[in-house]
Amino acid sequence: MIDFLRGYEDYLGGWLWEMGIASLATLQLMFVSFWLACAIGMVAALIPMARIKSLNLLVKLYIGFFRGVPVLVILYWIYFALPEMGYEVLVVSSYTAAILGLGIHGGAFLAEIFRSGIESLHKGQMEAALSLGMTPAKAMAYIVLPQAIRVVLPPIANFAVGLLKETALCSIIAAPELMLRAKDLASSSFLPMHAFVMAAVFYYIMSFPLMRAVEYLEVKMGKGLRTG
Amino acid sequence: MPEFWIKMWEWWPEIFPVLLRATAMTVQVMIGALIVALILGMAVALMRISTFKLLRYPALFYTDVMRGTPALVQIFIIYFGLSDLGIEFDPVSAAIIGLGMNGAAYVGEIYRAGIEAIHRGQVEAALSLGMTPVRAMRYIILPQALRLMLPPLCNYAILLVKDTAIISTIAAPEIMFEARRLVQATFMYSISGQIYLICAGFYLALTLPLSQVAKRLEKAKERWR
Q: What are the chain B neighbours of A161 within 8 Å (beta carbons)?
């Protein structure tokens, strides 16, 4: 154990700095793709409310497909397949590809979360709002969504933890983030164990507050909530 | 757009068998990891519900760390890190151990939630009948808790199938690894899109039936109550 820690002697300062910077890149990647996923998920959750069959089917296919497929397939598609097949217009940097991939993949998961949140509300809420003369859009915005947020916040926070961990996959398409930096440092120092353990510590530091937030929200939001 | 499908049709005989074999490997890794996770997860869950702090806190820490760090990092530590310290694994066993240890944290949580969902009176009744705690667990709690656990366990299996994709990074010959190799080794760059689409198809062929099973189990759980 002491021998192992001694391995850090020459590298600790430099690594802390480099991995710290890379962690910021990871957080940025997570943040941007989180909002993209939220936007996509919201649209995919609200479209079925409009009751247009063809759109409905499209959303169903989107959710079914992207929930059943690993992120890696999507990342490969965006980053490798599109340029390789000759669609020059769609060539993007690895960072953009990572954001798009995580956003599109996450959107399918968030859509399900949002939908279950909206459906968890009693139908009477919507009916009451409509009978008061609200338009469906207004009823959604002022009556249903504010109440649904309470149901969906814990699973959304849970999703954020998952998303943070999924950003590590983007190192495979060489998007600049923590895992890629850890790989670089591991191969340049010939100390893979030290580099990856330190990367794990950085990831844990980032996910720790999020995981505590999940627990807090589950308790806080669960209070007085009727389930079933 | 039609040429996309025509090309896929032409290359189908070359691509399909390779990816089919890779899928067999994916299933193998997934089942291996599932077994490791189910067994190790039981230990984690029993430690977590123990009243003995020396058992409870390590299990809590294990769960937290495994759930708080990416599976990719864990697998790299096992494959690259341990080989640096002189413990060498082949990619497939490293993948099974890594995904299994990662899964033990999730499965442990599922077990724990299932056990804790059983009414406290059940244990008390069993204990007051003179059963030992182990017997009460084995004959009273677990059989009831199992029904609650099955749907989330099935969902976990779906996650596991998708997680196997990351072991392509340690050169385990599963779907994504073989697909990339197919593209690079045979210079089939112009049809890489088709190849990855077939990959997606294989993953869906594994995950969609599982999610149907999960739905069924969820319904059955309601009936059992």
A: 67-68
Low-confidence ranges of chain A (pLDDT < 50): 228
What domain range is A65 assigned to? Answer: 2-222
Q: Are A138 and A129 in contact (CB under 8 A)?
A: yes
**Is the CB of B186 inside 8 Å of chain A's CB atoms?**
no
Whether B211 contacts chain A with CB within 8 A: yes
In a domain? residue A158: yes
In a domain, A228, yes or no: no
**pLDDT averages per 10-residue partition of chain B, 225 residues:** 78 85 93 95 90 90 93 92 85 93 94 87 88 87 88 92 91 89 79 88 93 89 73
- Which of B73, B82, B166 is nearest residue A200 as measured by Cβ atoms? B73
CB-CB neighbors (< 8 A) of B76 in chain A: 182-183, 186, 192, 196
CA nearest neighbour of B23 among B15, B35, B34: B15
- Separation CA B212–CA B77 (nearest Å): 35
Q: Do B183 and A84 touch (CB under 8 A)?
A: yes
Count how many domains chain B has: 1
The whole-number pLDDT of residue B225 equals 62
A199 in B contact zone (CB under 8 Å):
yes
Is A227 inside any structural domain? no
Domain range for B68 is 2-224
Taking 3-state DSSP, the helix, strand and coil percentages for chain A, each rounded to the nearest 5, stand at 85, 0, 15
Q: Is residue A145 part of a domain?
A: yes
